[in-house]
Write a structure and sequence with these properties.
The chain has about 180 residues and is of the alpha+beta class. The protein folds into 2 domains: about 70 residues, Arc Repressor Mutant, subunit A (Orthogonal Bundle), CATH 1.10.10; about 100 residues, no CATH class. It is built from 9 helices and 5 strands, in the order H-H-H-E-E-H-H-E-H-E-E-H-H-H. Strands 3, 4 and 5 form a 3-stranded mixed β-sheet that branches. Strand 1 and strand 2 form a beta hairpin. Helix 2 crosses helix 3. The relative contact order is 0.17.
Length: about 180
């Protein structure tokens, strides 16, 4: 098995962080797969890759937050680069998501969205610059889990934001991962 991280592994890691804040009960791989709209084998292989990269402790079944923080803040935008596309309708992410939009005054040109089929998701569609999600199932998983949506939006801000916006996303992410 190839032990290099894949984009869906980052999504799995962020979901586990989101779950640790919200759920006291243990999770199972099939439940995790369903909630992320991934296959069980994708989750299983993702956890193995995260463990190989010292981002997941399989014995304690938890994310190593300090390592994840370092990777997200310093390496993610280089390992999984992103480019903004044309304008379209979709689900808000990055600067357009509520976690950062509350602090910024954004015009339509500043909105960033994941492309999403009309009628899909929670109905919070806006017009903005299209950004391919980190992994294809991200919009569906984010629509089901607002906390995961916030983490993914912060990660997207680190990937495509300007210096000020990346700094805001970093500060918020560091604060959340420390708790």
């Amino acid at each position: 098995m190839d032990l290099r991280l894949k984009p869906q592994d980052v999504v799995v890691a962020l979901k586990l962080v989101a779950l640790s804040a919200a759920v006291a009960s243990p999770w199972t791989q099939p439940e995790l797969a369903r909630s992320l709209h991934l296959s069980a084998s994708e989750v299983n292989h993702g956890l193995k890759r995260l463990a190989a990269c010292h981002l997941f402790n399989p014995r304690e079944r938890r994310i190593i937050r300090s390592g994840l923080q370092e990777f997200l803040v310093s390496g993610l935008r280089y390992v999984f680069p992103a480019q903004l596309g044309l304008f379209g309708e979709g689900m808000p992410t990055s600067l357009g998501a509520s976690v950062l939009a509350e602090r910024l005054r954004l015009g339509e040109d500043d909105q960033v969205v994941w492309p999403l089929a009309p009628g899909a998701g929670d109905g919070a569609h806006v017009r903005g610059r299209l950004l391919a999600p980190l992994y294809r199932s991200v919009p569906l998983a984010a629509a089901d889990d607002p906390v995961l949506h916030e983490y993914l939006a912060l990660v997207d801000a680190l990937r495509v934001g300007r210096a000020r916006e990346r700094a805001m996303a970093k500060d918020e992410l560091v604060k959340r991962l420390a708790s």
